UniProtKB/TrEMBL annotation:
Pfam families attached to this UniProt entry: Acetyltransf_1
Lineage: Bacteria, Pseudomonadati, Bacteroidota, Flavobacteriia, Flavobacteriales
InterPro entries documented for this protein: Acyl_CoA_acyltransferase (IPR016181), GNAT_dom (IPR000182)
Name recorded for this polypeptide: GNAT family N-acetyltransferase
Domain N-acetyltransferase: start-end pairs: 5-166
SUPFAM superfamilies in alphabetical order: Acyl-CoA N-acyltransferases (Nat)
Amino acid sequence: MNLETKLRKAEIEDRHEIWAIIQQSIERRKQDGSTQWQNGYPNMGTVESDIAKGFGYVMTVDGEIAVYAALILNDEPAYSTIEGAWLSDGEFVVVHRVAVDGKFAGQGMVKKLFDHIEDFTKSQGIQSVKVDTNYDNMAMLKILESKGYSYCGEVLLADGMRKAYEKIII
């Protein structure tokens, strides 16, 4: 079965569907014993802000929203200070708030999402992709490793220290 996946900017009309997907992800993290996303963030306001700023993206599978992510160009203040070192200091895409609809979970959708993000990054002439995740988000840690992201150190976000990764695209 060859499903068609596409990455597109999220529209304000998508917000309720995106929020439902994020709520599923929050619950899955809780069930997995993760502390990430267990303090009221992200929330509907986060989704609406992402969309308004042009950061919100959805990956669709045959037209249906399967994955949400925020893609931010060259702007993550927390990344200016890292315990460790980034691979590059050029332009970058930041990936935040990755959430998969439960019915697509376990089907490699986040790996497909990262393929789309890397294609997008390359098409924009941007040097690298940077991402952080919680220490106990084993699924994302495995995905980053499998996609060739390099561990660069730790960054401090509002809700604690995160493992930081980067992949040079061009």
